[in-house]
Amino acid sequence: MKILNADQLKIVDQETIQNEGINSWELMERASSIVTTAIIDDYFDIIKELPIAIVCGKGNNGGDGLAIARHLMDSGYDVEVRLLKADRYTADNQLNQAKLENIQYFDLEDDLDLPLEGFLIDCLFGYGLSSALSDEWRGVVEQINDFQGRIISVDMPSGLMLDAVGNFEDNIVRASKVYTFQFPKLALLLPENSIFVGEFEVLDIGLDENSILKQGTSYRYVEAGMLDILLRSRSRYSHKGTFGHVAIIGGSLGKMGAVLMATKSALKSGCGLVTAYIPKCGYNVLQIGFPEAMVLLDSSDEKLVDFQIQDDFTAYGVGIGMGKDEETVRGFGIWLQSLAEDSKLVLDADALNIISENEHLLKYLPSNSILTPHPKELKRLIGEWENDLDKLEKAKAFSNENQLILVIKGANSAIVNPAGEVYFNSTGNPGMATGGMGDVLTGIISSLLAQGYNALDAAVLGVYIHGSAGDFAMDWVGETSLIASDLIDHLASAFMNLLNESE
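Below the sequence we write its predicted C-alpha cells.
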C-alpha cells in the first residue's frame, strides 16, 4: 500500500470526484459513513452506554465530524457536538451544519464542557494541516487530552502534520486510536509520534484506483495483499536440496540460546537444511535442543575464532550471540574477505557492532547484504539523528552508499533499500519487545534468502512473517507473557495465513 503526501492525497480526492461524477460532499458522506460503521463495530459495548462528544474544526475534517455525529444520532447514540466558531467554514462543513441541530459553538479560550467520561472524537484538523498549531490552541488541545474517556481521531490526530514528527511540547491530540482514510500516513508510522497515535486503522473509502496508481512514492506500507504473490508454492517433486542450505553463525559461552532460536526459526521458515556454526561449548545445546539441525564446530571452546566454514551454503545468518572478543573480530573480518561477491548474507547483533567499530569491513559485505539493527545498533552504524525523518534520510544514504538493505527493527519496522525505498511493516505487537526476537528474525530472513528469494523480498516478507507469528502467539499467551520461542511455535500459522490470503 502506498504512503502519499498531502498534495498527492488532494489529487486523488479530486480525481475520484471527477471520475465518479460525484461532488465533494458525497465523498465526505461516504467516508464519514465508513468511519461511523468502524466506530460502532469496534466500540459497540462502550458507546451504547456512554456519551459521545465530537469536537469539530472549521474545515473538512470538521465536516467529517459533523457527518459522523449525524450518522451516530440516526443510529440512536447520545452525541454532543462542539464546533469551533469561525467567520468562514468550508462549503461541505456548512452543508453538514445545516443537517444538524443542537450544535454547541466554542471559541479557543472557552471551556469545552466535555463529559466526565465516555467517548471523544477529534475532528479539528485532518491531513491538510501545513504548520504546527499556534499557542492559542493549547487550551483546546489540553482539554481534549485531559478527557478521561477514550479519544479517537479521524484521519490524523489534530495538530500532527502529515510528514512531520511532534514532540512532547507540541499542541497535538493524543489519540488512543486513529481512523485514517485509504492510506496510512507517514507521521502515523514514526516512533517519535507514538504518544499521539496509540494505534491506527486504515479505512478504504473507495478512492480512484487509477489515480492512486499514478502517484509515485518511495514509502509503502506492507500488508498481506502485496506479499501473497511472493510466497512460493512447493512442487510434489521437491526435496530438501531444493530449498537451500543456510548457515547460522554465532554463539559464545552463555549465549547459545540465540543460535538455537535462529536455527529453529530458519528451518521452520522453509529452508531445506540448516547448519549451526558454533563454539564447542554449544554442541550439546544444539544437538539436544534441535536435532533437526546439523552442527559445525569452531576450534575454540567458548567463542568463535576460526570461521572455517565451507562455501557451499546458499545463505548465511551471522552475529547472534557471537560477542566481540578480539580473536572473534579478527576471524570474522578474515571470513568476510573470503566471501564470494554473490554470497547472501544477514548480519545481526554483534556482527553489526563489530562492523560499526571497524568500518573498513563494510567494503567486504556483498551487495544487498541485509543488516537488521535495533535503534542503538543503527545509531552506531549511521550516527546520531535529529528526529525520525532525519533517521530515515540517513538510513537511505547509508543503504545507497554501501548498497545494503537495512531492516530497522521496532514498531512498524522499516526496510530500506539502496534505491531509497522504505517499506513499513504492518504486523507485530508490543509483547515482542523482549530478548531473542531479533534472533528469530535473523533465522527467518536467512531461510528465505537460502530458498532463493531476492534480498528485498526476503527482508520484507521475513519481517512481515515475524510480526504475524508474534500476533498469533499473542492471541494464545497475551502480550505480557510473550517470548521469542512462542514466535517459533506460531511460524506455521503465519505462513498458512499468508497462503490463505493468496487463494
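The chain has two domains: 6-215, 240-502.
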